[in-house]
Design goal:
This protein is an alpha+beta fold and 374 residues long. It is 30% helix and 16% strand. It contains eleven helices and 13 strands. Strands 2-1-13-12-11-10-9 form a seven-stranded antiparallel β-sheet, sandwiched between helices. The protein has a two-stranded antiparallel ribbon with strand order 3-8. Strands 4-5 form a two-stranded antiparallel sheet. A hairpin with a 2-residue loop joins strand 6 and strand 7. The longest helix is centred in the first third of the chain and has 14 residues. It is globular.
Length: 374
């Protein structure tokens, strides 16, 4: 291990020793070389150490994998961005749209256009996380399909049945709304590929890249305990033998993927090098795909200087010492983050087992020492 990143690894060790999280794993690729670091333990009060190849629930870091999988299928003609989504998701045909975001569920008008594959890729199809006490927000919770760090607890078919019962919050293409489009895209990719999503993922991404630790569930003997911050300290979100220890009812790239830091770094390295999907599709995936109006929805969540490609965030301005216009990456609600900075020639990945307290967490305790080391 080189001395260049000693300060980065020390910062992570200090964070764990402070009690912030039981353990974490990081990987950095810079100048053609890759280094990994693990610190802490997999479960509070137990001695099993965190390893560099420990599997984590990566939550929304599955979204870029969804974008790459879709890009692969677009490249070979299996689908096209402007195809109507209801070719594969007939439940989305003839959607109704609320007359205003806080309107009663029966106060709707017809959608003025079809929902397309592009809308799902860019999270602009009209439905997603609702930050407020509205009828639609309550209905999403009641139906068990509200966005969150854990996948829906139902089959693809049941999920689509429940989504179809609810109106859109916005007209298709009008506004960026977080997450729900990723779960819809997961269903669409499985139906378009005429196979279980896990099989398509293996054939197109994980097997070719040797990502043996990536899938929709992990070995309970290896999975760390997932925690979330609570009023009395860390609370268990998912135990090693919990939701992610077995084949799920819903294979979700929105929030249901398990991966390791070496696997995810290999994924981003292949994506950045045009070896995973053709350059044309990668450019679409990792560049700004929103207009000014659509971008307002993202700015409400993340602030200025950021936009969205195909299932991944794209920086349009410098937002921190480690970022640059044209950089791309995202975070996962279970405590994961990854970023590609082409200008500085680095890729960084950090997996923790402490769920994010909110979108304002930026993992700067990792990124700022990394930027300084470079």
């Amino acid at each position: 291990m080189s001395a260049q990143f000693t300060t980065v690894w020390q910062a992570l060790s200090d964070k764990v020793e402070s009690g912030w999280a039981p353990g974490m794993v990081a990987g950095i690729r810079h100048g053609g070389t890759t280094e990994f670091f693990a610190t802490g333990v997999r479960t509070l009060g137990r001695p099993e150490p965190m390893r560099t190849d420990s599997p984590f629930r990566i939550a929304s870091l599955g979204k870029p994998v969804a974008g790459a999988l879709a890009a692969s299928m677009i490249a070979d003609g299996s689908l096209a961005p402007d195809d109507p989504a209801d070719v594969w998701l007939p439940e989305l045909a003839y959607p109704r749209v609320l007359t205003s975001p806080d309107a009663p569920l029966d106060s709707t008008v017809p959608a003025d256009r079809d929902i397309t594959v592009r809308h799902l890729l860019t999270l602009t199809h009209g439905m997603g996380a609702v930050f407020g006490n509205t009828p639609l927000g309550r209905a999403l919770v009641d139906a068990g399909i509200e966005p969150g760090p854990l996948p829906p607890s139902m089959t693809h078919e049941e999920f689509m049945h429940r989504v179809a019962k609810l109106p859109l919050e916005h007209q298709p293409g009008a506004c960026w709304k977080y997450h729900t489009g990723s779960d819809l895209l997961s269903v669409l990719l499985a139906r378009a590929g005429q196979a279980p999503l896990g099989q398509i993922l293996a054939e197109r991404i994980t097997d070719p890249l040797g990502m043996a630790g990536t899938g929709f569930f992990g070995d309970p003997a290896e999975l760390p305990t997932a925690y979330r911050p609570g009023p009395g300290g860390l609370e268990v979100l998912d135990p090693p033998d919990g939701l992610f220890s077995r084949q799920p009812a819903f294979e979700s790239l929105g929030s249901g993927l398990v991966s390791t830091v070496p696997d995810y770094l290999a994924f981003l390295t292949a994506l950045a090098g045009d070896t995973l999907v053709p350059a044309e599709q990668r450019r679409h995936m990792t560049s700004d795909q929103l207009n000014d109006t659509q971008r307002q929805g993202l700015a409400e969540l993340m602030g200025p200087g950021i936009s969205w490609g195909w299932q991944i965030a794209v920086d349009t301005a410098r937002r921190g010492s480690w970022t640059a216009p044209g950089g791309y990456g995202w975070t996962g609600g279970t405590g994961t983050t990854a970023y590609v900075n082409p200008d500085a020639d680095f890729i960084g990945v950090l997996f923790t087992q402490r769920a994010m307290a909110g979108p304002g967490e930026d993992f700067s305790y990792f990124w700022e020492p990394l930027a300084a080391a470079l």
